[in-house]
Design goal:
Shape: globular
Number of helices: 14
Distance between the termini: 44 Å
Order of helices and strands: HHHHHEHEHEEHEHHEHHHEHEE
Strand content: 15-25%
Radius of gyration: 19 Å
CATH architecture of the largest domain: 3-Layer(aba) Sandwich
CATH superfamily of the largest domain: Vaccinia Virus protein VP39
Strand order of the largest sheet: 3-2-1-4-5-9-8
Number of strands: 9
CATH class of the largest domain: Alpha Beta
Length: 323
């Protein structure tokens, strides 16, 4: 979907984050307009377009992004089961979705989940988010300044969005925000992208590629990203460096597609990283849990069975009693 077409369709009113009324969510208030001046909201949108241009590209090619970058049925089942265990007597839950993952928005939940999604990239909301309905609404906002009332959410969800945040400082800020908006005993459920305790080498990844031991392009991309970062999550890896390494060592798109049998459209998604100065950071599970500190207590860790699932566990955190 072209950004020009999206802008023409939505019109000028969508330049600023949308304001969801109390009646729309039956008591869940999203007072964005009352907490952030209109001039600041427009500045935020301009900064978003500049800083997250690779997300704009992702929005246009989202149909070619596959698991494990997107959650599969097995991942979704882990979340459904976690909510059933922790909220056995509740029929309706107020939920916060960080990002606009359509699989989470459209999932068939055991509970009635009244969902507010927050994403700071307008192109992702326009290109990826399913249309709003009586149970779900998307707004454009900052995860580190959530436009939500205190103690308004039963559960917060995010699928794989944490690597785009600065580690560990932004993780700590996010934990503070989630602690604020979650109700007492509320849950934060996240599928994370975690490097192994001892980083894999790029040589091992390339050897696995040559021996046809990697199932799809997105697994190759993530293994290389984590290997290029190494053991120090605070350094991360620049997206353009991932693109350059794949371009230099894995061949052109057509040749890689011929060698592996992977769809060339999926391989082409790496071009969203070309020229991007954005940095992804991959802490280990232990490092991530530690960064959330006293605000969120990890109470469950579950893994699926697909290839590389050991690096994509689903963690369940509970809001602590800490102030």
């Amino acid at each position: 979907m072209q950004r020009e077409r999206a802008a023409a369709r939505t019109g000028p009113d969508r330049e600023s984050p949308r304001n969801v009324s109390a009646s729309a969510l039956d008591g869940v208030v999203v007072p964005f307009a009352s907490t952030v001046p209109a001039t600041k909201r427009r500045a935020t949108m301009a900064e978003t377009t500049s800083s997250f241009s690779h997300w704009n590209k992702h929005a246009r090619q989202w149909q070619h992004v596959k698991a494990p970058l997107r959650p599969c049925a097995e991942d979704l089942a882990l979340i459904v089961e976690a909510l059933a265990r922790h909220f056995p007597d509740r029929a309706t839950l107020n939920g916060l979705l960080l990002g606009v993952t359509p699989e989470l928005a459209e999932n068939r939940w055991a509970h009635v989940l009244r969902l507010v999604a927050v994403d700071n990239t307008l192109a992702m909301i326009q290109g990826v988010w399913p249309k709003d309905d009586e149970h779900r609404h998307a707004i454009c906002g900052d995860w580190l300044q959530l436009p939500l009332n205190d103690a308004s959410m039963d559960v917060a969800l995010i699928d794989g969005g944490l690597p785009a945040m600065s580690f560990p400082d932004a993780y700590r800020q996010l934990a503070t925000q989630l602690h604020r908006v979650l109700k007492p005993g509320g849950l934060f459920v996240t599928r994370i992208f975690a490097r192994p305790e001892n980083a894999e080498t790029v040589g091992n990844v390339l050897a696995a590629l040559q021996s046809r031991q990697i199932g799809n392009f997105h697994i190759l991309k993530w293994r290389l990203a984590m290997a290029l970062q190494g053991d120090d999550a605070s350094t991360g890896v620049r997206l353009d460096d991932i693109w350059r390494y794949i371009d230099k060592h894995c061949g052109q798109h057509a040749g890689l597609a011929q060698m592996t049998g992977w769809p060339i459209e999926e391989i082409g998604t790496i071009d969203a990283y070309r020229g991007s100065s954005a940095i992804y950071q991959f802490p280990s599970v232990g490092e991530l849990v530690g960064a959330f500190g006293a605000k969120l207590d990890c109470v469950e860790e579950k893994r699926c069975t697909y290839e590389l699932a050991e690096r994509f566990p689903t963690l369940v955190f509970r809001k602590t009693a800490a102030p």
